[in-house]
Amino acid sequence: MGCVGSTPAKGDGNVKMIRKPKPWKHPQPITKSEFVQMREEFWDTAPHYGGKKEIWDALRAAAEADLTLAQAIVDSAGVIVQSADLTVCYDERGAKYELPKYVLSEPTNLIQESRE
């Protein structure tokens, strides 16, 4: 038999379901190749912002996955999700990981590359 206190609390901050980020717009129209380059530059430099490389790798995998797989990735990596859209997360030691929206979704003003 369990007691009343043995059930998980609804306000448990460690388990937050991931959701898609809200639509956003880049300050100026941007091409797909420029956008991909921005993402790559962020992920290449992310470990230099602090935290553990393994957590950055897990966050990248989650950012590039569908929601169900992303949830499994952050859960198995021990990532504590502060913002459900993954913009603010923590590892088990309390290190903060901030992800810009551009690594989580595409802007609404993405433009076609010109063919010359």
Automatic annotation (TrEMBL):
Q: Where is this region: Disordered?
A: 1-27
Keywords (alphabetical) are: DNA-directed DNA polymerase, Nucleotidyltransferase, Transferase
Q: Extract the GO molecular function terms from the UniProt entry.
A: DNA-directed DNA polymerase activity
Q: Where is the DC-UbP/UBTD2 N-terminal domain?
A: 16-113
Gene3D superfamilies tied to this protein: Ub domain-containing protein, DC-UbP/UBTD2, N-terminal domain
Identify the PANTHER family for this entry.
Answer: UBIQUITIN DOMAIN CONTAINING 1 PROTEIN-RELATED
This chain belongs to which protein, by name? Answer: DNA-directed DNA polymerase
Species for this entry: Hibiscus syriacus (Rose of Sharon)
